[in-house]
Amino acid sequence: MTIEHGGALDRAIARFGAKRSDWLDLSTGINPEAFPLPVIAPEVWNRLPDEALLNQALQAARRYYGVAEGASIVAAPGTQALIQIVPELAEPGEVAILSPTYQEHHAAFARAGWAVMPCADIGSIPATAQAVVVVNPNNPDGRIVAGDELLGLAQRLQARGGFLIIDEAFADASPEVSIAAGAGGDNLIVFKSFGKFFGLAGLRLGFAISGGEIARKLAERLGPWAVSGPALAIATQALRASPELEEFRGRVFARRARLSAIFKRVGVEEIGGTALFALVRQRQAHTLHEELCRRHILVRKFDYARDWLRIGLAADEPDFERLEQAFKDISG
C-alpha cells in the first residue's frame, strides 16, 4: 500500500526545480510558527535521557492534556510509532476506521493481519468490529465526532473485549474537542501529537493515553530511551507555558482566518479542515496542484478524491499574499 503524504518537497523540487528556500510548502498540517525553544543544558545532549527527565515531560503532558489521575501516559518518538505498534498488541480481527482519513491507520492494521473496514460514520460501524479508529478532528476534512458519542462507543467495544483508538493529532488548537480526560481503561487509547500544533514536528514526539495494561505493552515495545532527551526537555517547557500558549494559539486562528479570507476572494470552495489546514474542492484540483507547483507552491492532493486539495497555513503576510496572487494568476 503506497501512501502519499504532505511534505514531499524534495520530489517537487526534483520535478519543478528551484531551491528549497524558493518554495512555499503548504502541504502539511504543521504550524508554520515553531514554539520558542528553551535553553537546553549541555548534559541533556551528552547523556541518555534519564527517568527524571522522562517523568517531568510526562507530568507536564498529563496536566496539559487533562489526563485523569488513574490513566497512564506513554511518550513515543512520534504518533506514527504508536500507530504502527498498537495493531500488534491484540489478536487480529475486524477493525472499523472512519474514512477517508489518515491512511497510515489502515496500513498498520492491514500489515498486522486485521480485516480493515472503512466506515463513513459511527452509525455504520458493524457490531463485529473488535477495534475502531477515529481521527478527531479528522484529517483531511475536519469532521468532529462528539465526545459523549465516542465515550459511548468505547463502552460498547469494551463489552465485547474491543478497543477504540482516538487520534487527536489536530486537537491541540481546539482542546475542547479532546476526550483525553475520559481515557483510563484499556478500551480507549488516545494519541496526541506534540509536533503539529507546536510547529516542532522534527522532534518526533507523541503520547498515548490509555489504561495501565496497554501502556505497559506500549512501553515494552518502544524500549528504553525511546524519546530523545532534547525532545523531552523542549516538550516539558512548552507544555508548561500557559500564558504564552494562549497567544500562540491565537496566532494559529488568525492565520486560519486569513487563509479562509483568501479562498472567498479568489472563488475557491472551502469544504472543511482544522485550525492548521483547509480542505478545498476544485473540479480540476490536480491541474491546480500542478500550476501551483510551477509557481513553487506545494499543497496536498489526493488520489482518492481528485477534486480535493489540502492547504496549510502560511507563516506571514508576504506568503499569504504570494498564495493569493498565485490563485489569481492561475484563474485569470
Automatic annotation (TrEMBL):
Gene Ontology molecular-function annotations: pyridoxal phosphate binding; threonine-phosphate decarboxylase activity
Keyword field: Cobalamin biosynthesis, Lyase, Pyridoxal phosphate
Keyword check for Metal-binding: no
Known cofactor(s): pyridoxal 5'-phosphate
Catalytic activity reported: O-phospho-L-threonine + H(+) = (R)-1-aminopropan-2-yl phosphate + CO2
InterPro entries hit by this protein: Aminotransferase_I/II_large, CobD, NHTrfase_class1_PyrdxlP-BS, PyrdxlP-dep_Trfase, PyrdxlP-dep_Trfase_major, PyrdxlP-dep_Trfase_small
The protein's Enzyme Commission number: 4.1.1.81
Domain of life: Bacteria
GO BP term, pick one: cobalamin biosynthetic process
KW Lyase (keyword) present: yes
Span of domain Aminotransferase class I/classII large: 44-322
Pathway(s) it belongs to: Cofactor biosynthesis; adenosylcobalamin biosynthesis
Class of this enzyme: lyase
PANTHER family reported in the protein's UniProt record: HISTIDINOL-PHOSPHATE AMINOTRANSFERASE-RELATED, THREONINE-PHOSPHATE DECARBOXYLASE
NCBIfam families: L_thr_O3P_dcar (TIGR01140)
Purpose of the protein: Decarboxylates L-threonine-O-3-phosphate to yield (R)-1-amino-2-propanol O-2-phosphate, the precursor for the linkage between the nucleotide loop and the corrin ring in cobalamin.
Protein name (record): threonine-phosphate decarboxylase
Source organism per UniProt: Paramesorhizobium deserti
